[in-house]
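sry for the spam today, last one i promise. struct tokens for design, 476 residues
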């Protein structure tokens, strides 16, 4: 009975399901068939070469499009066989455009992947490849960089490199979420159910930075809840740990800076002295904001003179926001209304090249279960206060607007005046805060074993997803 009770703990159920499904997804998903996986792989490989920046090349082509005049493009020097596999992988993408003709969604056979696995690394035989380099620091890729450096030394074939880096992502994601679920004294089931949904596990089993951002954000939320419910006094060590988590989040993805406001949900009586709370908050805000400002200015400088596919001037876009704030607010509202269904469904289902999704009914039912797990279950000392809920909702909205704004600055908006480039998965790191708004003390003692029902449904959801993925990519 003790063993069964241990297994049935939310954090342990999460680990079992995340590792089981994650390993399956690691190998079922064809090479480089997830969000920007080739670009992230290139970035990590460059770090192993000691390159913290990128190369530049002036050319009339980026390898896909032919320009009317030469363009200066960001590029990287990569072994030919890695590029070869990625070019072959991109042909599965229905938006791949080599000769200005849109390819239909293509499929692959396991035999083709096995053939690709025989391509040797041949790390001395290189080419220069153009790609939009993600503006992330080595912090976002530290475990992957160390792993890939070892694999390079062993002359591991590129396909095996990719699969091992996916496993590296999966184990990091699993460890961070396990720590978050174990750490939080409340809403454990809500955390677990979010993180065993198909999209979070899919992101955890691919080469990207999403799994790290989700893990760190969940860990910060869980730590804040522990400070609220289980800590008598907050000393310097606890302040430093909170600061370390929010700083790492800002280093990995600055649009989640509003999560620093979680600090304000901690009751003042938890601090050692009057005024320590606001002083600590201001110091953390200054350091994080200073880092973000410096990082943005640095990137604007290093990308100066390079061609952007979106023909946007970042500085002019920022200025236009402040010059015409009402127009910009209207643009955001129009975008949210137009893309509402896409944003919500793709928070839990958005795979491959964003052309593979499960039924909307499956997603809606999963959201309903998430809301119910947020309403029920936790035997809290007291429910969230109205002030805390206001802060949770403000953080969620602020992250949404800040991320939309980042996409507005980077991407060209459509002729309809809508902001492009935003994905529903960007809201996963703050989804718990939205669900906390449904917390209700009236249902706190409900005995219905909703979590078991949710787990069973998640298994059905995942099976449907894997079948959809196989049907999309493989000849059956």
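last one done:
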């Amino acid at each position: 009975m003790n063993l069964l009770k241990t297994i049935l703990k939310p954090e342990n159920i999460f680990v079992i399901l995340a590792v089981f499904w994650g390993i399956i997804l690691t190998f079922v998903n064809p090479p480089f068939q997830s969000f920007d996986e080739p670009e992230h792989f290139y970035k990590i490989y460059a770090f192993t070469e000691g390159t913290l920046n990128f190369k530049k090349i002036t050319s009339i082509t980026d390898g896909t499009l032919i320009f009317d005049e030469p363009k200066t493009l960001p590029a990287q020097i990569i072994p030919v066989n890695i590029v070869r596999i990625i070019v072959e992988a991109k042909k599965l993408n229905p938006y791949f455009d080599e000769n200005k003709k849109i390819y239909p969604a293509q499929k692959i056979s396991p035999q083709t992947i096995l053939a690709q696995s025989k391509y040797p690394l041949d790390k001395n035989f290189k080419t220069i490849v153009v790609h939009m380099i993600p503006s992330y620091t080595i912090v976002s890729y530290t475990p992957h960089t160390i792993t890939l450096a070892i694999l390079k030394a062993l002359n591991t074939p590129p396909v095996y490199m990719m699969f091992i880096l996916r496993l590296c992502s999966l184990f990091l994601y699993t460890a961070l979420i396990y720590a978050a679920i174990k750490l939080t004294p409340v809403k454990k089931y809500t955390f677990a159910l979010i993180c065993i949904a198909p999209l979070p596990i899919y992101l955890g089993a691919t080469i990207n930075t999403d799994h790290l951002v989700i893990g760190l954000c969940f860990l910060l939320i869980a730590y804040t809840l522990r400070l609220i419910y289980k800590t008598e006094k907050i000393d310097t060590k606890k302040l430093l740990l909170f600061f370390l988590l929010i700083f790492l989040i800002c280093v990995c993805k600055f649009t989640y800076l509003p999560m620093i406001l979680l600090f304000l949900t901690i009751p003042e009586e938890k601090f050692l002295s009057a005024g320590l709370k606001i002083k600590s908050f201001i110091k953390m805000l200054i350091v994080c904001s200073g880092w973000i400002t410096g990082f943005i200015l640095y990137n604007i400088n290093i990308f100066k003179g390079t061609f952007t596919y979106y023909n946007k001037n970042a500085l002019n876009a920022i200025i236009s926001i402040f010059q015409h704030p009402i127009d910009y607010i209207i643009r955001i509202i129009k975008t949210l209304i137009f893309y509402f269904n896409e944003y919500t469904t793709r928070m839990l289902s958005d795979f491959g090249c964003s052309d593979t999704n499960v039924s909307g009914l499956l997603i809606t039912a999963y959201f309903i279960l998430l809301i119910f797990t947020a309403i029920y279950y936790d035997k809290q000392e007291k429910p969230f206060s109205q002030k805390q809920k206001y802060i949770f909702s403000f953080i969620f909205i602020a992250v949404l607007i800040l991320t939309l704004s980042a996409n507005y600055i980077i991407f060209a908006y459509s002729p309809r005046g809508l902001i492009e480039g935003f994905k529903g998965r960007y809201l996963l790191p703050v989804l718990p805060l939205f669900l906390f708004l449904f917390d209700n003390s009236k249902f706190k003692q409900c005995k219905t074993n909703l979590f078991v029902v949710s787990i069973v449904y998640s298994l059905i959801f995942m099976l449907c997803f894997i079948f959809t993925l196989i049907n999309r990519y493989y000849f059956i």
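The chain has a mean pLDDT of 85. ok im logging off now
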